[in-house]
Amino acid sequence: MLLQHVMQGRENQMQKNNSSVLMASTLSDVFFHLKSVNNLQILGGCTYISSLDEKSLCVKFIDELSQIEKKERYIDFGPSVTLSQIIQIRRTNLPEVLYDALITMASESVRNLATFGGSICAADPKIMIWSPLLALDARLEIRNQSETKYIPFSKYTGIPKGFILTKIRIPIDDWDIQIFKRVGPSSKLNDLSAGFTFLASTQKDLITNVRITFSGNTVFRSTELENKIIGAHFPLTSKFIGDVVKTASSLLEKNQEYTKMQPILRQQFLNLIQYSLEQLT
Ligand SMILES: Cc1cc2nc3c(=O)[nH]c(=O)nc-3n(C[C@H](O)[C@H](O)[C@H](O)COP(=O)(O)OP(=O)(O)OC[C@H]3O[C@@H](n4cnc5c(N)ncnc54)[C@H](O)[C@@H]3O)c2cc1C
Questions:
Q1: CB neighbours of 203 closer than 8 A, spacing ≥ 6?
Q2: Which fold has domain 64-171?
Q3: How far is the CA of 45 from the centre of ligand 1 (A)?
Q4: Could you read off the pLDDT of 27-45 as tens digits, one per residue?
Q5: Which backbone phi and psi does 215 adopt, to 5 degrees?
Q6: What proportion of the chain, given as a percentage, has pLDDT over 90?
């Protein structure tokens, strides 16, 4: 963790080991530095990065990037909000799967430093919030001095050069069932780490909406699988559940991308789909 290094005083610029850390206090400062410094490394809580580049810019203490705003249909988070600050909002005021993912991440002391933005910009889908963000149809706002772009989380592959993440918008929908499960070791990340999210809405005896995501070394979301479940009537039979699991299994086999998935992760994913559907019966 590099925060201690970054925090040696809060001067505007610090130098150590041939690397300079700039401290930004406004978004305009950030845009100025992004424009004037080539290959500027952005720093959040510094829990993921392993070394400082020649020039880095800490964005953790910018007010505009540290806000949380809850509206009727969505919540906006600034990227400098820490994971602990989100947890403090409490489960009842957040999409439950987001809260459930956050409390599995690292230790309390790491969560006090790690930022929401850093956990997204690290561009590592093993990080537990990826699966709920994908299932909840989160949207990212990225900016440079002259342009603002909005990226659906399903299309996100990393922050383009010269841009900074400025907002994370999470829709608030009425889900009747929300399930998040972490697989792999606890409080650290490795190749067996992944997050699973299942969301379902129901009306009388009918499933009206479903989202299923799995995010580890590879990221899975399939509208084909979701459409197979939407419209199903209760009670779900074991044959129906078995057919859904078979469809998921063949989707994993068909797509080259999923061959990266360890066999144990594939099996855990299929078991979690079965488990989630059983909660609906
Ligand atoms: C001991 C330990 C245990 C952990 N255990 C878990 C775990 O159990 N589960 C889990 O999911 N994760 C775990 N993690 C990973 C943790 O989730 C990440 O380290 C954390 O979310 C990164 O946030 P950060 O603010 O520290 O990012 P940083 O390290 O500051 O930055 C990460 C990346 O994001 C970029 N960045 C940051 N903010 C912005 C921005 N606003 N715009 C553009 N780019 C930006 C940086 O340039 C960098 O590339 C663990 C980490 C540690 C150290």
A1: none
A2: 3.30.465
A3: 7
A4: 999 999 999 999 999 999 9
A5: -140, 115
A6: 89
CATH homologous superfamily of 177-280: CO dehydrogenase flavoprotein, C-terminal domain (3.30.390.50)
- φ, ψ dihedrals at 114, nearest 5°: -65, 140
Task: Name the residue of 40, 46, 105, 192 to mutate for ligand 1: max ligand atoms within 8 A of Cβ.
Answer: 105
How far apart, in whole angstroms, are the C-alpha atoms of residue 10 and residue 271? 49
C-alpha to C-alpha distance for 133 and 112, rounded to whole angstroms: 20
ipTM: 0.99
Tokens of 100: 């459930």
CATH topology of domain 3-60: 3.30.43
In which element (H, E) is residue 5 found?
helix 3-6
Q: Give the binding-site residues of ligand 1, using a 6 Å CB cut-off.
A: 41-49, 59, 79, 105-106, 110, 113-115, 117-119, 121-122, 127-128, 159, 164-165, 187-189
Q: Domains of the chain: which residue ranges? A: 3-60, 64-171, 177-280
